[in-house]
Structures are given as C-alpha cells and as structure tokens.
Amino acid sequence: MNQIDMTSLLLLLMAALGIFSNNMPITVAMIVLLLLRVLHIQFMFPWLEKYGLTIGIIVLTIGVMTPVASGKLSLQTLLSSFFNWKSILAIGVGMLVAWLGGRGAALMGNQPTIVAGLLIVTVLGVAFFRGVPVGPLIAAGILSLLIGKM
Fold first, then answer.
1. I need a labelling partner for 129 at 20 to 30 A (CA). Which of 23, 106, 135, 136 fits?
2. pLDDT (tens digit, 0 to 9) for every residue of the chain, 150 residues total?
3. Sequence-ordered list of residues with C-beta below 8 angstroms from that of 42, at least 6 positions apart, any chain
C-alpha cells in the first residue's frame, strides 16, 4: 500500500494557494519543485539550495536595474534622488532592508531549523497578501535581531 507523500502534498497545497490567490510566482515555484520530486530528480535539490537564492537575487537585480540599462532612468534622475527627502528616505530604507536581507541569508544558512516555519508562513503571506518572495530574507534578518544570532 502506498503511503501519502506529505512533502508532495504540502507542495501541491501551496501551488493551490498560489492559484487561489492569483499569485503566479508561488504557483510556478511549487509546481517546479513538485515536478522535481515526482520525476525523481531530487539530485537538483542540493544545487538549488546552494545556488537558487543567488540566481533569484541576480534575476531580481536584473529586473530592478533594467530601467537604468534601457535608459528610462537617466543619470540626472538618479542623481536628483539624492536631493529629495523622500528619495533619501527610500535610500535609507533600502540600505536597512539590504542589511536585514544579508543577516537573514546568513541566519538561514546557519540555522535552517529555526527558519523552517518562517519559510512556509512567508510563502503563505506571499500567496494571500500579494507579496514578493523576498520576505524570508527580511523576516529572517529581523528574527536574527530578535534572537541575537547571525
């Protein structure tokens, strides 16, 4: 008799949440992970654990910097951002979030059991609140401040 594969069931449930909440990135990510399990190519998991975050950050950075590369944001516009209080505030917040993300990445690498629940709940938050799945890094960074670990 076959046992229920709880991990695959969880991935399927998360994909369903992505569909239900109209969140394509969550849906696609869960289906890709589920397919890797179903097709028995789990040998990819260690590679994805090691490099997936870096690849994701590279793709995210490309997306964010495309307006600069395409010329939609001129050098003058970028330089003027240092003279507007809202832009200066945005720069400060961006630096804080980048710092928290760095702490979060370190915590996730050093203490994976602490943040296991954090990852699942963040995916749920992305699905229900139309967030972006960079939340685990920031949340882990805040958690590292609260528990005093890095």
1. 106
2. 456 788 899 899 888 888 888 778 888 989 999 999 999 998 999 999 888 888 988 998 899 899 999 999 888 888 887 888 888 888 898 899 889 888 888 887 777 777 677 777 777 787 778 777 667 778 888 888 888 765
3. 36
Residues 128/18, Cβ–Cβ less than 8 Å: no
- Nearest Cα to 19, choosing from 127, 116, 113, 95? 127
CA distances for 1 relative to 4, 5, 11, 97, 136, angstroms: 10, 12, 22, 49, 37
What is the CB neighbour count within 10 angstroms for residue 118? 18
Neighbour-count burial of 137, counting CB atoms closer than 10 A to its CB (0-12 exposed, 13-18 middle, 19+ buried)? buried
pTM for the full predicted model: 0.69
